[in-house]
């Protein structure tokens, strides 16, 4: 459905909202793309035409957002939803309210600026956790005692009302153990703040790329655990959300860790709804972080879920090598991680050159071979050849398991069990079968990568398979 400026202007005149026109444009575009019908259900393959399906008992219906209005009154909810009109026959409460309401109405609380200023001691500098494109992030404590992270919009920063609205929408509709939870938000006047669950260990970059000499390096198995959890988060966005969601900003600083090193994707300001029906891609201006963007996305602006798969390949290389995607401190030929790594990836005998020196050789050689094979498949120059994230999850599953006798040092905080992702090694026959299946899939991916390398060598390919363009084209806008 096309949205014209005249329609938006008319809506603005008839609305009590005080948000700028360009923010209302984002909201109505999101509405027209069908965020209100976003549901979470059984696994499916994206980018294929599927017949409409009804909301099942395991799905989260969120059509209420499609009828939402925007408000910036002091402490007022950002989205005020009407009850869904469909699905009431089978699951309706006695008062007529659907059994499954919008997640935003249920979980995301509207805070006043005063409440969040009190929680962060008026945004004291010693409460500062970090700073990014959106603004600064502070540690805070709510009146009920809950520890949270409060992200405050920098009015002069790269991101603004558009990203704020997108992130509130996305995190209110999507829930998974490997996605950060949105506690609430604040839209008082010009103030824009987001309130998240507090992640005790901060971002992955602090432990992998910016670690200090007194920090213990991440072990191989802990790195694979982080990779596996991140892959499951992307799998949820790509193959279980309907329509699919393209994250578009996968990088180490956006992966947060809890006390048990369980990863969670954060910062959804650049997330975008993926193609639906017969559409194969979404056309958009290039946004993201240089070094992580897929080459075809930089060239054409055509966005697919395979764009995220490429970024995941870069992310996996970071975990293997301990190097940044782009490091200006390196020699010119080694500054871009993928350019440095691809010649090594083509020669299996050189895989050991990729490994982070901080690991001191403590890694299983076979596991390294299979992890590099998965990275190579994700970084394939042809996006159609790259695997789906569900395949990567299976291939990486057994790499995340800690072998007997090599147990990680337990954390002080108990690990929360995920009902949908039980441990693989619990001694049952079913888990053994799952483990074996994961190993077979991983070996198949490794074999496929080796076959492609051999074919490339026979054809006399000598140039790198990746095409990196001017850095200014891919920088976050």
TrEMBL record:
The keyword Kinase applies. One of its GO terms (cellular component) is plasma membrane. ATP binds at residue 151. Keywords: ATP-binding, Cell membrane, Kinase, Lipoprotein, Membrane, Nucleotide-binding, Serine/threonine-protein kinase, Transferase. One of its GO terms (molecular function) is protein serine/threonine kinase activity. PROSITE patterns: PROTEIN_KINASE_ATP (PS00107), PROTEIN_KINASE_DOM (PS50011), PROTEIN_KINASE_ST (PS00108). Residues 123-399 form the Protein kinase domain. It is a lipid-anchor. It is found in: Cell membrane. It catalyses: L-threonyl-[protein] + ATP = O-phospho-L-threonyl-[protein] + ADP + H(+); L-seryl-[protein] + ATP = O-phospho-L-seryl-[protein] + ADP + H(+). Residues 60-74 have a biased composition (Low complexity). The keyword Cytoplasm does not apply. Its EC number is 2.7.11.1. Belongs to the protein kinase superfamily. Ser/Thr protein kinase family. This is non-specific serine/threonine protein kinase.
């Amino acid at each position: 459905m096309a949205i014209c400026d005249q329609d938006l202007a008319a809506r603005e005149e008839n609305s009590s909202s005080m948000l700028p026109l360009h923010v209302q444009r984002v909201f109505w575009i999101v509405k027209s793309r069908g965020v209100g019908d976003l549901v979470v259900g059984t696994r499916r393959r994206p980018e294929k035409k599927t017949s409409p399906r009804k909301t099942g008992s395991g799905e989260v219906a969120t059509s209420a957002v499609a009828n939402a209005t925007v408000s910036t009154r002091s402490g007022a909810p950002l989205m005020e939803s009407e009850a869904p009109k469909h699905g009431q026959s089978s699951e309706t409460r006695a008062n007529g309210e659907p059994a499954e309401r919008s997640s935003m109405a249920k979980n995301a609380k509207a805070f006043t600026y005063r409440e969040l200023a009190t929680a962060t001691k008026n945004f004291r500098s010693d409460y500062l956790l970090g700073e990014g494109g959106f603004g600064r992030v502070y540690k805070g404590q709510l009146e009920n005692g809950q520890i949270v992270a409060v992200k405050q919009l920098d009015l002069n920063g790269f991101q603004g009302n558009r990203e704020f609205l997108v992130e509130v929408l996305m995190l209110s509709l999507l829930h998974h153990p490997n996605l950060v939870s949105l506690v609430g938000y604040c839209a008082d006047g010009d103030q824009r703040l987001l309130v998240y669950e507090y992640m005790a260990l901060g971002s992955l970059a602090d432990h992998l790329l910016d670690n200090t000499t007194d920090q213990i390096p991440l072990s191989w198995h802990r790195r694979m655990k982080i990779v596996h959890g991140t892959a499951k988060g992307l799998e949820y966005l790509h193959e279980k959300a309907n329509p699919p969601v393209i994250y578009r900003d996968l990088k180490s600083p956006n992966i947060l860790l809890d006390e048990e090193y369980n990863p969670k994707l954060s910062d959804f300001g650049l997330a975008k709804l993926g193609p639906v029906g017969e559409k194969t891609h979404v056309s958009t201006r290039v946004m993201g972080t240089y070094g992580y963007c897929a080459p075809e996305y930089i060239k054409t602006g055509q966005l697919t879920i395979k764009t995220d798969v490429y970024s995941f390949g870069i992310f996996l290389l970071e975990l293997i090598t301990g190097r940044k995607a782009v490091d200006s401190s390196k020699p010119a030929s080694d500054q871009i991680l993928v350019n440095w790594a691809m010649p090594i990836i083509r020669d299996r005998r050189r895989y050991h050159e990729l490994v982070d020196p901080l690991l001191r050789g403590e890694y299983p050689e076979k596991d390294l071979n299979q992890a590099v094979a998965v990275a190579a498949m994700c970084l394939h120059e042809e996006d159609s050849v790259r695997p789906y994230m569900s395949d990567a999850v299976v291939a990486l599953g057994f790499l995340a398991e800690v072998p007997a006798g090599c147990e990680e040092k337990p954390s002080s905080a108990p690990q929360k069990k995920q009902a949908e992702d039980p441990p693989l090694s619990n001694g049952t026959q079913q888990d053994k079968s799952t483990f074996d299946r994961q190993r077979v899939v991983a070996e198949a991916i490794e074999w496929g990568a080796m076959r492609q390398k051999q074919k490339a060598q026979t054809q006399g390919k000598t140039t790198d398979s990746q095409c990196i363009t001017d850095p200014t084209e891919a920088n976050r806008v």
